[in-house]
Amino acid sequence: MRMRKKSWAEPFLKENPDFVIEKPEVRAGRWHELLGCTRLRVEIGSGKGDYFTKMAAMNTEEGWIGIEKEHNVAAVAVKKALAQPHEHMAFIAQDADQISTWFAPGEIDVIHLNFSDPWPKSGYAKRRLSHARFLKQYETLLNENGQVIMKTDNPKLFEFSLTEFSKENWLLCEVSVDFRRLPHPEDAITEYEQKFMDLGQPIYRAVWQKKA
Ligand code: SAM
Question: Average pLDDT for residues 199-210, to the nearest whole number?
Fold first, then answer.
């Protein structure tokens, strides 16, 4: 998600070190204790933070961590989060490339990928958040019943992801090619999602569980 540069973004992120965690690797293995939760959910590519903030407000007993690499966008997400009760939340404004160093093995319950960048050119496939190089990291970080939940508007990214998870032997638990056809009040609508819904485009969704 690209946005015009915000002069306040960098200082704002630095002004909130208790919430925007600069060295997440120091917290690996302690996230549950630090966020006061027994379940931990992580959204990678939070954008302006709609999903992460709404879901955290609906599920205050769970820990929620948003990850977003673009600081202009991350600052908007953090501002939203700080405007609501956020003791059970944290934010990492960095590239998820390093995610395997930020959490201990088995520490995460659910990883959410919402409207991830599709990187349509095959030369950039490795940057897709559902590429095998990320799936291998997710597999280590999720607990034994851990899940990855993906939503996208992009059929090619969805197809790529289904193939990639299958090649890595993940179990496909749920799949929908028109998720919003039925009401799902338990699942918040992201900013991107609302745009596609307004255009009448279907939302693709899948849930995978890591192999036993
Ligand atoms: N999830 C939001 C939504 O549904 O409204 C934002 C979707 S936007 C298309 C994808 C976001 O993922 C962008 O803001 C981008 O910067 C972020 N992103 C992509 N790759 C990332 C990575 N490796 N680490 C952290 N953020 C990433």
Answer: 96
CA dist 203 and 102 (Å) reads: 30
**List of long-range contacts for 191-196, beta carbons under 8 Å, 24+ apart:** 191/47, 191/48, 191/50, 192/47, 192/114, 192/115, 192/153, 193/114, 193/115, 193/151, 193/153, 196/153
- Catalytic residue IDs: 117
193 CA closest ligand 1 atom index: 4
Instruction: Tell me if residue 170 falls in helix, strand or coil.
Output: coil
Say whether 138 sits in a helix, a strand or coil: helix
47 CA distance to ligand 1 centroid (A)?
A: 5
Topology at the third CATH level for domain 9-209: Rossmann fold (3.40.50)
Asked if residue 1 has its Cβ within 6 Å of ligand 1, the reply is yes
DSSP 108-132: EEEEEEES-----SGGGGGGSTTSH
pLDDT in tens, 164-177: 999 999 999 999 99
Best residue among 115, 138, 189, 198 to mutate for probing ligand 1's pocket (most ligand atoms within 8 Å of CB) is 115
